[in-house]
Amino acid sequence: MSIDKQQFAKACERVINVERERNGIGTLGEKTLHMVLKCYYEQDDSKHEVKIGRHVADICDGAQITEIQTRSFDKMRKKLDVFLDEYTVTIVYPVPATKWLVWIDEENGEVTQKRKSPKRGGIYEIFQELYRIKPFLTHPNLHLRITLLEVEEYRYLNGWSKDKKKGSSRCDRIPVDIVDEVDINSAADYIKFVPNVLTERFTSADYHKAAKINRGRAQTALNILTHMGVVARVGKKGNAYLYEKI
Fold first, then answer.
1. Mean pLDDT for back-to-back runs of 10 residues, the chain (246 residues)
2. Radius of gyration of the chain (CA)
3. What's the pTM?
4. Residues 18, 101: Cα–Cα separation, whole Å
5. Which domains, ranges and CATH numbers included, belong to the chain?
């Protein structure tokens, strides 16, 4: 599936402009990103919030279900138990590839000019969540889509640091543009998570440097990649396990 920037802009217009003119900043909370993606991936409202047994699917067209999950994949376990037996299920996981920060002063309501965050998000962020549903990953009906976005993140100046930014709470994330999509439709597709520079045997330290992620996330990623049969442990180098592509 190729990205459709025009359709994405329409989804943003539909959700953000209309709802925010009606209710103001912060009234939708974390639902804004979810609602935009739901409207982007399915324009027909009748296919939104479809009840299936005791559960509700974000999108269902009769044969396929799309679930938009920004975090806490563990909350999906009961749904997946039911949905995967009868439907093809795609979990859409949005990642802010580019983020603009906007600060809100709760006392006077002032909103700062947006500033670009130096942090960039990537596809490897999904691994902490995948670990929560690890037993389901090999199911042939389960697919993943990592949607890379440009977002504006609104935060309240209510943190514990002197500038009130550290430890602050997030008000909302507003999508501005869609950058890319990465689809994982089979176990073989998990090779997309193995950097091309890793041509020989490698350790988790090599992996974290190549993928430019921290060691903890690298270890989680390799756990999942081993589970999916993309890499295998083939020995040790000192106290570190050695891996190679299968």
1. 87 78 49 91 94 94 94 93 96 96 84 88 96 96 97 87 82 91 96 94 96 95 97 94 95
2. 20
3. 0.90
4. 22
5. 5-185 (no CATH), 194-246 (3.30.63.20)
